[in-house]
Write a structure and sequence with these properties.
Mean pLDDT: 93
CATH architecture: Alpha-Beta Complex
Number of strands: 9
Helix content: 25-40%
Strand order of the largest sheet: 3-2-1-4-6-5-8
Structural class: alpha/beta
CATH superfamily: Spore Coat Polysaccharide Biosynthesis Protein SpsA, Chain A
Low-confidence stretches: 126-130
Number of domains: 1
Length: 243
């Protein structure tokens, strides 16, 4: 049976991180790591009280961190000990017990390297309409440049699982392009059939401003274009296995 580490990147997510940790721990036995990117609120305190092992990202590896979510994930993989690493966003209000086990289940097949969550994105009081960067940037570019991945319904979703050996062998984009970068890289190295999807229902989280979404869209588009062979500068960490 595969051992499991849950990695939760967190930056000032005190209102929600505890419930995410508790939901993950309910699927135990497993390791739950909260990677705290220098939060200035009570994120670390709330996560520890809920039962997580809290690591400041500066404690992991003897190099200074680069700003960005991908950096926290990369350091989380370095700290994790499970055969399977499950990534979960700290700002979720809809993460429930059972979801970690659902994401891990497909790894009974040795040919699976990555499992993406599939869900409906809510928007305010509406049951659909969320995921604007996904629908307006990521999916159109993937359909054109990587059509074999056009069936992936949540390419930017923050809930997914990956073999730790696979994660250690891949680069991690430092910013919000990390998810789509890993998706493309896994497909390129192991084939599209190495990626599975699991329906987790619906997903709710805090929505960001159009200005913030525009910045995210820039990084996502740059990542997809760079992976397609375009000469675009992209800040990323090299695979952990070379360190």
């Amino acid at each position: 049976m595969n051992s499991v580490s849950v990695v939760i990147p967190a930056l000032n997510e005190a209102p929600t991180v505890a419930q995410v940790v508790e939901a993950a721990l309910a699927d135990g036995p497993l390791e739950v790591l909260v990677i705290d990117a220098d939060s200035t609120d009570a994120t670390a305190k709330e996560a520890a009280a809920a039962g997580a092992t809290v690591l400041n990202w500066r404690e992991i590896l003897e190099i200074d961190p680069i700003a960005g979510k991908g950096e926290s994930l990369w350091r989380g993989v370095a700290a994790a000990r499970g055969d399977i690493v499950v990534f979960v966003d700290a700002d979720l209000t809809s993460f429930r017990s059972g979801m970690v086990n659902q994401l891990v289940a497909p790894f009974d097949n040795d040919e699976i390297h990555l499992v993406k969550a599939d869900y409906v994105r809510t928007f305010g009081d509406h049951t659909t309409g969320g995921g604007r960067v996904t629908e307006l940037t990521a999916k159109p570019l993937l359909r054109v440049l990587f059509p074999g991945l056009s069936h992936i319904r949540q390419p930017l979703g923050g809930e997914y699982a990956i073999r730790r050996t696979t994660a250690r062998a891949l680069p991690f984009v430092s910013g919000y392009g990390v998810e789509v970068g890993l998706l493309i890289d896994v497909a390129s190295q192991f084939g599209i059939s190495s990626i599975a999807q699991i329906d987790l229902g619906s997903r709710s989280h805090n929505h960001q401003s159009l200005e913030a979404l525009g910045s995210m869209a820039d990084i996502v588009a740059s990542t997809i274009l760079q992976r397609h062979g375009h000469d675009i500068p992209l800040l990323q960490r090299e695979p952990l296995d070379i360190y």
